[in-house]
Amino acid sequence: MAKENSVICSFCGRNKAQVKRIISGAHGNICVDCIEACKNIIDEQYSMENTSMFDAVSFELLKPREIKARLDEYIIGQEYAKIVLSVA
Fold this sequence. Notes:
With 88 residues, the protein is mainly alpha-helical. The chain contains four helices and two strands, in the order H-E-E-H-H-H.
């Protein structure tokens, strides 16, 4: 019993008897509850970032001819490279 209580979660500090399961890593342990909490935080942050990113950014898709014209404004020569890049 003493060995079971010596394994603790590095995040919340609870021992093996207090949690459902503890996963051991190279530099510590983590319980299933803390893994779930971390996953929820990451999911929430990811959904907030993606929502705000697509709401705030609007862009216009250019046709290859328009892309080539824009490249012509900034790049001298390299005609073949500009054509390939604008079509890609």
